[in-house]
Amino acid sequence: xxxxxxxxxxxxxxxxxxxxxxxxxxxxxxxxxxxxxxxxxxxxxxxxxxxxxxxxxxxxxxxxxxxxxxxxxxxxxxxxxxxxxxxxxxxxxxxxxxxxxxxxxxxxxxxxxxxxxxxxxxxxxxxxxxxxxxxxxxxxxxxxxxxxxxxxxxxxxxxxxxxxxxxxxxxxxxxxxxxxxxxxxxxxxxxxxxxxxxxxxxxxxxxxxxxxxxxxxxxxxxxxxxxxxxxxxxxxxxxxxxxxxxxxxxxxxxxxxxxxxxxxxxxxxxxxxxxxxxxxxxxxxxxxxxxxxxxxxxxxxxxxxxxxxxxxxxxxxxxxxxxxxxxxxxxxxxxxxxxxxxxxxxxxxxxxxxxxxxxxxxxxxxxxxxxxxxxxxxxxxxxxxxxxxxxxxxxxxxxxxxxxxxxxxxxxxxxxxxxxxxxxxxxxxxxxxxxxxxxxxxxxxxxxxxxxxxxxxxxxxxxxxxxxxxxxxxxxxxxxxxxxxxxxxxxxxxxxxxxxxxxxxxxxxxxxxxxxxxx
Length: 519
Prior knowledge:
There is one protein chain. By secondary structure, this protein is of the alpha/beta class. It is 39% helix and 20% strand. Strand 4 (22-23) and strand 5 form a beta hairpin. The longest helix has 26 residues, at 94-119.
């Protein structure tokens, strides 16, 4: 039985059961066994995190930044072992996906978070000199991060964006490993502990549990010692945890579900239809479609060019070998979602079935439905088919596309492709107006699968894309705000103010002083 990391020590678990991860490339269980932590163990982690938060209040931000930078360097040095573990547990390619893209992104995120911590500008220090009132964002308290299955590095509960943001804002983190890649997360915890020891951080800064019962998970997110939760995962499980957190007023930042609508306007298909077929298929089948921004819902206006586009997508989906899905549960969920879409009236044009053999895989799947039928059952047709499947909605005109978008739930992204000669411009504005109310990121003539780690990025959106449309999980410094509280200092003596609010601005942060941003 693998150990858990509690208060700076690897200890034997007070187990409530056990589980094993599965190699999705073979369908066979991986030998290592991991515990379901009992409540007594979770209670220890919460107590240690609470103590670590108290200690962090007196730790200089530069030391927190040193921890993040040291941790990033250790991850980079351990690249070979991390990539091997993640490949075995997820089936994701060693190169370029894991080693050349995702691991460097993870290292970069941690270092960007460290830079934000050093300056402090993310905290939006604001000073009214006349009234002697000052405010800034400060650490919120212990954070629990639930990592997803599809990004074992960049969104990992102990290395990803939520983790980096929570630590950079000055909070300890309890990581709940995803059951699909526990060994990868364990390796991160080992490296984080080394970084903690090298930089003298509190013992409870980073802790790891692998799995809990549903009841204990709900008890964890509602515990008064926990300040906030970062969650990326299934909609069903996420809503159960969110309900428990909501009952006690706990901030719950969740990424839950998104079909990411893409509109191809008629002129774009006339102008460059074959190119768009290639562009869409590349995006739709990237990583076997297991991206939260995967373009899973296409909207077209019926025309010969639209029919050519559909035929081209179907042909390429049938010709392309299906990728490996992350787990048996992803496989079964995808098959179930395809069945829901078919039962609602979608026509199956390609795929739909599990691939024979031990590998976790489903045939590349294309479904089609008319705009009229979509509008009769929009909830069913928005069922997220997480994986290598797409639903194409063929509308009769622009009005039907607008009505279809009006019926959508919230999404992370929305894309509109239009002609470069301006022939689609009259259609663009009414479609974009509706799309903007439904998505966190609007794209033009570009697929959504890449999420750049840019200060301007919004990886969020209206429910159920996320639990709150005002925040982003990617993009520093904005992502730090989720794990901070706004604190006001009214007539507080100067020597008692935090560094960010002192007159001499020792950290050289951008500050809003009497209505003007200044260094």
